[in-house]
Amino acid sequence: MHVLGRDSDSDDGASPDGGISPRTNGEGDCETDGELPPTVRIGSFLARDGSAGAAVGVDADGPHAGVVFGKRGTGKSYTLGVLAEGLGMARGVAPVVVDPMGVFGGLRAAGGRVVEPRVRPAAIPPKAWPDLLGLDPASGPGSLVWRVVADARDDSDPLASGDDSEGSDGSPSLAALRDRVADADAPAADRRAAANHLRLAESWGVFGADAPPVRRFVADGDPTVLDLAGTPEAAAGAVVRAVARGLYDARIDGEIDRLPWLLVDEAHAFFDGVADPALRTLLTRGRAPGVSLVCATQRPGALPSVAVSQSDLLVAHRLTAERDLDRLAEAEATYLAGDLASRLPTGTGEALVVDDATETAHTVRIRERRTPHGGGSPRASETEAVTGAAAESEDPR
Ligand SMILES: Nc1ncnc2c1ncn2[C@@H]1O[C@H](COP(=O)(O)OP(=O)(O)OP(=O)(O)O)[C@@H](O)[C@H]1O
């Protein structure tokens, strides 16, 4: 990658190599001045004695694949938010945050928009539909849905050619798919089951034949937060697939200028469903057209190996589970002496940052957010019942 921009007078050992911009101040979230490529400040080097050192930045000039690991409460979502804030200020890029827990709304204060995403049914390929609806593709209803979606796409030339007009003619609606099911030459029981599953998908509220094209999310450089809190897992997976693939295709087709960064919180959940192929595409081929992917998870062991092997940026907060540490071990390159697990810092907001480009691993204190962070475990002592009671008892009257 190209993480660690550092102060040019840093005595940290390894010298910056190609693509790394020396940082001259640690105040901004992003540096774009003069000849320097944009660098997103994520924190500071953390010395053994706990003192903060030179500023650390992620080079946002080129695309990356990255992972952010950490046990619950160690600061993963917070770190993703720090990255989103900085990317929102960097020129030429556009962050899109997948927010399954509803903790990134604070990015509004950085000019971000929070959307309840809708995607076009046609963004999900026919063969993925049975799985999406929880149907066996080899079953009667499963194969019927598959066929109906394929036929609807074939009958819709503008859609097949990637048309993104605002009308509903670009993609079949779920109601139209149900009509096709009703008219299909198939046993009544299969038609009934297929229609019921399509009706359920309609109730998720994430599909719309006239949903705006995914490229709208990156029309300007402000962060877009896809609010998926409370969205059923399958539906959230459909959104992530459509967005991941949509950004990739839009870059390939030259429809978007900016380099998109897809930041996925709770990423393990998305590698377990319909979004998996699109995320793998970004991991393995996303950098060629300029699409970055950063996956944050508390369960690294539940991510596919490719997520780590393809990542050129690894940010690891504290981990303890053996399976998760094993996944981290896969990232150990020959240039990293000793095992990474033993080097994980323990404090909240502290992380080991492994930078493939400079072939280094450093302990970093992630900087504080400039916008509110919605994460963190709820505390009984912070509930209204307690704070309200405390306020009452302090009332001088
Ligand atoms: N870099 C940091 N600077 C200051 N506080 C931080 C930092 N990172 C995390 N915190 C604090 O720790 C809390 C937990 O962080 P966060 O919500 O990111 O945890 P998480 O690892 O994503 O946990 P979960 O898996 O439960 O979502 C935050 O609400 C914040 O108060």
From TrEMBL:
It catalyses: Couples ATP hydrolysis with the unwinding of duplex DNA by translocating in the 3'-5' direction; ATP + H2O = ADP + phosphate + H(+). Pfam families: DUF87. GO terms for molecular function: 3'-5' DNA helicase activity; 5'-3' DNA helicase activity. Residues 62-329 form the AAA+ ATPase domain. InterPro entries: AAA+_ATPase, HerA-like, HerA_central, P-loop_NTPase. Residues 1-39, 361-397 are annotated as: Disordered. Belongs to the HerA family. This is AAA+ ATPase domain-containing protein. The lineage of its organism: Archaea, Methanobacteriati, Methanobacteriota, Stenosarchaea group, Halobacteria.
